[in-house]
């Protein structure tokens, strides 16, 4: 009897843990119906520069950015409000995604924009990664009627100056697509 009770408790615990996980056992907080989008990032010359993904997770969107063949240093990275990346300056991407009409930057008392991400650090090998969860967002919001894009800027974002943190020109861009 005692062994049967132990097995039932063990099975119940396993079922409860299985209900909380989504991706092979790691607890990342992703919602079962979580939508995702990805963006292939390209330079103004059309060269492949990496990929960004956006995934619905509990309470927000998880962004991951993996770039290559980019200039070494610190670069502003932002979600922009239009899903267009026309070279050479990517101005067709519009301004930062800002549905709540805040000012730019996490260090700005009247900020941040929904599209403000932390700085991307690119090593001397031209590679850089960034992963951040931004609360209160959805991938469906990114994929609205005119879409959205991700921009990598030439310089560092000061995280406080409106509208773009003095991060310089737009050197790479990718349009988010569902899936």
Automatic annotation (TrEMBL):
PROSITE patterns cross-referenced by the UniProt entry: PROKAR_LIPOPROTEIN
Highest taxon in the source lineage: Bacteria
Keyword Cell membrane: no
Chain segments annotated as transmembrane: none
GO MF terms held by the record: copper ion binding; superoxide dismutase activity
Signal peptide bounds: 1-18
Family annotation (Gene3D superfamilies): Superoxide dismutase, copper/zinc binding domain
EC number: 1.15.1.1
SUPFAM superfamilies for the chain: Cu,Zn superoxide dismutase-like (SSF49329)
Domain Superoxide dismutase copper/zinc binding as annotated: residue spans: 50-175
Keywords: Oxidoreductase, Signal
Enzyme class label: oxidoreductase
Similarity comment: Belongs to the Cu-Zn superoxide dismutase family.
Protein name in UniProt: Cu-Zn family superoxide dismutase
Organism: Sphingomonas jinjuensis
